[in-house]
Amino acid sequence: MAKASEIKVGNILRYNGELVTVTEVLHRTPGKGGAFYLDKFRNIKTGKIVEARLATDEQVEICRVETNDFQYLYEEGDYMVIMDNVTYDQHNIPKSLFGPAVKFLKEGMNVIVSFESEEPIMATAPNHVELEITYTEPAVKGDTSSGALKNATTENGVEIKVPLFVNQGDKIKVDTRTGDYVERVK
């Protein structure tokens, strides 16, 4: 347990029985009455923002979270099987923790997962991945207005928009946060 005055942005707390991450800490000293903290928390499971008014000596529980690199092995139903790179222990992580970036994961890729007492609470895919184009329409000569895009299918079945000069068999870099094409890889 810690005092509210010891909370820092980025800490993970157990607040009202839920795991939250601290996004904002404001100290207020009104002209009348005691000082207090006005904090904003983001619920880790639901993503909802919660505001809390805490007295300076109020007790809060700061959770101990371990964050490590893991290797993504394979998909199993609603779970992703990952392996610890040091101990070779395998864990099942719910797909929902990765968010929309889950569709860009390839076997053997490194991911970052955070555990709070053996329970996975957060998972992060790499910001950029390299994927091979398995299908795309050939570009038609003369169809070169600036910024023209066409549909392409990647090796893991994801459809994205790519520039006209990208062909089948090319490797491209994709931003997993937005799903956008970044560049062609040599």
Automatic annotation (TrEMBL):
Name assigned to this protein: Elongation factor P
UniProt domain Elongation factor P C-terminal: residue ranges: 129-184
PROSITE patterns for the chain: EFP (PS01275)
Gene field: efp
Main location as per UniProt: cytoplasm
Pathway info: Protein biosynthesis; polypeptide chain elongation
Keyword DNA repair belongs to the record: no
MF-aspect GO terms: translation elongation factor activity
Species for this entry: Mucilaginibacter rigui
CDD domains: S1_EF-P_repeat_1 (cd04470), S1_EF-P_repeat_2 (cd05794)
Organism superkingdom: Bacteria
Compartment(s) of residence: Cytoplasm
Any Pfam family the entry gives: EFP
Stored HAMAP family: EF_P (MF_00141)
